[in-house]
Each structure stands twice: as C-alpha cells, then as structure tokens.
C-alpha cells in the first residue's frame, strides 16, 4: 500500500510516496480506499516542522480525505461496503464541546493522515458524503468547511439579516461566505487582488475590499456600520483591524495565523465593545453531519482552485505556500 510520508526530516523536499504495511480493520474499524484529499495551511506547517517540531517521523500527511468503505471490522454496523465517506478531523470528537484530549486524535498531525491509497479508521470517525459532491469536493470538507460552520453556525449562531466579514479566498473563507449567504446574512470580504475580488463577488459577496489599497479596512467597515461576525484567519496581523470592524456585541472567531500567531491585542476594544473573541479548532462529527445536511439542502459546492495528482504532492504544497490559490487545493489519490 502506498502512502505519502514526511520521511527522515521535515521539509517539502523530503515528502514522497512509499510502501506502508497493510493492516486489517479491527473491532469497530473500517478500511477506506481513499480517492481524494485536500490541503489546509496546517498541512504546510506540519510538513515544514513548524506545527510540531517534535512530531515523530515518518508521518502520513493530510487531515482531509474522502473515499469508499472497502472492509468492515468485527461489530461494525454503522457502514456498508461501498458507501462514500469522509474522515472527521479529530477522530474522537464526536459531539459536545471541545476537550483537550481530542487533539491527540487529529489526522495528519497527532496521528497518520489521509494521503494514502488505503486507511483504517474507527467506524465512528467517518461521515457520509453528500450525494451531489464528487470525491474531490467531499475531500474539501473535514477541516475548512467544518471550521467555518462551527465559527458561524454551531458557535456563532449567525442569523438572517446579520453581517459577516471574511478574509481572503482560501478554504475557510470561501466556505464561510457560502454558509453566511445560505443563512441570509450580508457578506463583506477583504482580499488582495482584482482577480480574487471578482471571484468573491461571483460567489455572492455583497462588498469586497482590497486590503492592499486600504490598510485601514477595519475603520472603513466600521464607518459603514460594522459587522456582527468576523471570520478571522489572518492572525496577529489582522486581528486589530477585525476588532475595529466588528460591531458592539459582535463576535470574532479566531481561526488562522496566516500573518503570525503572536501579537498585541487591544483588550480595550474587546471590553468596550462587548466583543466575544472565540478560538475555533475545527469541530465535532455532529457539527460535520449538521453542516452536510445544509450542504445537501442548498446544493452547495466547494470552490476548488486546482486538482493535483498524488505524485505531485510537493508541487501542491508549493502552490499552497505561494498563497495565490482561490479556494481549496485538492490532491487526487489514484
């Protein structure tokens, strides 16, 4: 069985496909033939050793993947052979609130991930794919989509008539835009190029700002009335502007660290505006299943930037590193 590994040392140049042992599913487990996977910024950090420099190697990459159930272990009744499924990001977070111990089951980090021809997972750590989605589209859901759903719906409680600000055109932001519009919210987006502005408008954004032309975009948004929710993927470099843009009593969901993970935060703004500042670390299986129900109802589809073949994993990671993608980057497993 082939699997894509970080070999003896971190670095994109050290990633390649190699033979792995074939393990039969045990009690309560299933084997899945993986058809497609997708990349998240976390995967780049894992590959380069910035996520956990002490991570034991080798490690199979990627948290997100979709495929077909091919074998059932003893006692499995949840699935049938041939069903289309996706793995959940944290295999032990099935429902309820987040607990520290769930992180130890995160695919493609704490444990081996999905970039392999075949994986064996707990039967509880899977969800059904919406029928209208391809494997490539389904592989985009486990991290970015569930994160956006948790931020805006499960934890954020977004309602029709409210306003949402999304940052950029990557996976989380493009999903957040779709979920916000499906909920009847108004969406303001910030991005860096005319091409990305056109994409976001085409996806339904009501107002798009170029943050390279307007470094004080938070003030611009605030003057226009502010927003109820901010999906904060930038990190330290954008958080202060988000706190300016959000309305009094609004919510800022901190998700990413694209512009840095350490910086000053204006606690005065948090206090004076009664802002809810929440961290979001993906979500549970229950959230994933609720999100899929909405995806089915509204016939939503992920925005895919480009599909690479498995042998191009290094090229796919370089494409992610260049930060020019519009939507999700997919790696097909043949």
Short structural summary:
The chain has 334 residues and is of the alpha/beta class.
Descriptive overview:
Helix 3 (141-154) packs across helix 4 (171-182) and helix 6 packs parallel to helix 7 (239-245). The mean pLDDT is 95. By secondary structure, this protein is an alpha/beta fold. It contains 10 helices and 16 strands. The strands form 3 sheets. Strands 3, 5, 6, 7, 8, 15 and 16 form a 7-stranded mixed β-sheet that branches. It has a 6-stranded parallel β-sheet with strand order 11-10-9-12-13-14, with helices on both faces. It folds into 2 domains: 2-143 and 302-332, Medium-chain alcohol dehydrogenases, catalytic domain (Quinone Oxidoreductase, Chain A, domain 1); 156-279, Rossmann fold (3-Layer(aba) Sandwich). The chain has helices at residues 41-47, 135-138, 141-154, 171-182, 194-202, 217-223, 239-245, 267-272, 285-298, 313-322; strands at 2-6, 15-19, 29-39, 59-60, 64-72, 84-87, 118-122, 126-128, 163-167, 186-191, 207-210, 227-232, 246-254, 276-279, 304-309, 328-332. 27% of the residues lie in helices and 27% in strands. Strand 13, helix 8 (267-272) and strand 14 (276-279) form a beta-alpha-beta unit.
Proportion of strand residues: 25-35%
SSE order, one letter for each helix or strand: EEEHEEEEEHHEHEHEHEHEHEHEHE
What multimeric state do the chains show?
single chain
- Assign the structural class, choosing from mainly alpha, mainly beta, alpha/beta, alpha+beta, or little secondary structure: alpha/beta
Major sheet, described briefly? 7 strands, mixed
Chain-averaged pLDDT: 95
| CATH class type of the largest domain | Alpha Beta
Number of strands: 16
Please estimate the helix content. Answer: 25-40%
Radius of gyration: 20 Å
Number of helices: 10
Any idea what the shape is? globular
End-to-end CA span: 12 Å
CATH homology superfamily of the largest domain: Medium-chain alcohol dehydrogenases, catalytic domain
Second-tier CATH architecture of the largest domain: Alpha-Beta Complex
* Poorly predicted segments: none
Overall number of structural domains = 2
Classify the fold: give the CATH topology of the largest domain: Quinone Oxidoreductase, Chain A, domain 1
